[in-house]
Amino acid sequence: MSRWVLGISSFYHDAAAAIVCDGEVIAAAQEERFTRRKHDASFPAHAINYCLEEAFIEVSDLAGIAFYDDPLATWERVIESAVSAPGGARDLFTKATDSILGQKLWLRQALRTTLGPAVDDVPLHICDHHGSHAASAFYPSPFERAAILTVDGVGEWSTMTLSLGEGTDLRLLKEVRYPHSIGLLYSAMTGFCGFKVNSGEYKLMGLAPYGEPRFEDIIRRSLIDIKPDGSFRLNMDYFGYLHSEQMTNERFAALFGGPAREAETEISRREMDLAASVQKVTEEVVLRTAKHLHAETGCEQLVMAGGVALNCVANGKLARSGLYKDLWIQPAAGDAGGALGAALLVNHQVYGLPRHRKSGARDGQSGSLLGPAFTEREVAAFLERKGYPARHLTEPSAWAGEIAGLLDAGKIVGLHHGRMEFGPRALGGRSILGDPRNPETQTRMNLKIKFRESFRPFAPIVLEEHSEAYFDLNMESPYMLLVAPVQASRRQPIDRSGWWEDGEDMLEIIRQPRSDIPAVTHVDYSARVQSVSEERHPGIWQILKAFYERTGCAVLVNTSFNVRGEPIVCSPDDAYRCFMRTHMDVLVLGDFVLYKDEQPDFEEQGDWRQEFELD
């Protein structure tokens, strides 16, 4: 008899659900994709219903439900922080208590509201936050034995854990505990530089190559004490999050020459240099910790999860360090992935089931294509009902050849094909594609399609067998979680005169070609690489192959199919609305190709950009 376990994460940020059967990952999705509210933290009713439908099971078929962290342990932390506060933490305590007692402790009621009274008979398992992260990293990985590193802001009391995975066993070795957190240090700097905490950290990472780490010594001297083994302590005199809702305080601002940058104002040299500085400090913590973990375990393989594991610049340096022969990072490394980790943890630790990987698969993540797909009949019905003209290409080579030709002609293509990705990265299921050889692609996609900051780099996808011809990368990177240098032979010199002057037009810097694939080459000659294989990502592989055969270039620009402040699209309707709101030229819905100039006039009530928080 099959054992089905439903995993849930919610009530903090990035709520999600996942379902596992006898150790095999069947489905997983974030709630935001269904509700269209970015980083939706509410109870993931839509994601849960999707998972059950994808599995073709009823609630009564579930062997258990797993929740990704322990609300009572979190409440204990909140109480202790409030008790130790100098009189000003009442509001923080009240808000946190309302959240924990009003939501997490009433999890059974939320389940009953969503799934009905039958759920009362299903065992509910409360998991440890970092245990869920560790399980999400180790169990889907291709390794039978591996060192496990989890790093985030905070989960219950832990902010970093070092563990060992063997078979189905997970053993915690060491941890760093709240309030000392490299994730919270990075988030504090994110907020200070004018980006939104818990969602803007990747912007800070993208800004770092424009700066110089001139504040690195100040950060080391005043904010963090890093030990040789990678453990650390923060100087809480400069932070506000322990006793208030503010990440930093006046002493923090004085340390860096004045108040925090206001959101949406001009980015100055200070913010660039702060980004570069905290990035270097974060990389050192990750590298020292990984080195210590290698010495402790003797493992040649490392797996990672937690929000800091999405820092692909640090990951790339770790991959090139030679500390480990191989590295595997959970694609949904943040809290969303906790739903998957909790389900796997219960499968293996509670029910004693063996790990599962499909025959011939390199890992148990199925390319992280774990979300909804829409059949040819469903897409055809949508197009007919709406009256949207499209060309139907049923032969795979003709389909891929048409898209490759459009990209070669300089068109920007929105791709909605197969199952949706689980995690924050678009991996070819819900992607916007462009020609990396065109130096105008980056600015055009940023300003006219994504409606986001011009400095933000785009990621390349590359045929796996040609990866080393373009990037200095010594391992596969199927989930776009490693940054690697563009090969020196492909680089072009750039003019850095006047670069660091405040008021310098960043577009003039960005528009300088830096390599023969300028649209995906960042200002420091780096790129966040996704290596594409036919086994993991067959649809996008076909397009890449056709583009290579046509042009001799094995790389494409790949960015997530959304605009700033909006979640990645889920349904054909989501994709069409995003297509028509932007300057995309072509939309691919499964086997159907839609051309912008053939579409009927598209009008919506109100200003659509105001529907979403521009974070």
Structure summary:
The protein has 615 residues and is an alpha/beta fold. It is 35% helix and 18% strand.
What does this structure look like?
- The chain is α/β, with parallel strands linked by helices and 615 residues long.
- The longest helix has 29 residues, at 269-297.
- Helix 6 (129-138) packs across helix 13 and helix 15 (396-408) crosses helix 19.
- The protein has a nine-stranded mixed sheet with strand order 13-21-20-14-15-19-16-18-17, with helices on both faces.
List strands and helices in order, with pairings.
Blueprint: E1 4-9, E2 16-21, E3 24-30, H1 32-35, H2 45-55, E4 62-67, H3 71-84, H4 90-102, H5 107-115, E5 124-126, H6 129-138, E6 145-155, E7 158-166, E8 169-177, H7 182-192, H8 201-207, H9 216-223, E9 224-226, E10 232-234, H10 250-255, H11 269-297, E11 301-305, H12 312-320, E12 326-329, H13 335-350, H14 376-386, E13 391-392, H15 396-408, E14 413-416, E15 430-434, H16 441-449, E16 459-463, H17 467-470, E17 482-485, H18 506-510, E18 526-532, H19 538-551, E19 555-560, H20 572-581, E20 586-589, E21 592-595
Parallel strand pairs: 1-4, 4-5, 6-11, 11-12, 14-20, 16-18
Antiparallel strand pairs: 1-2, 2-3, 6-7, 7-8, 9-10, 13-21, 14-15, 15-19, 16-19, 17-18, 20-21
Helix pairs in contact: 3-4, 6-13, 7-11, 9-11, 11-12, 15-19
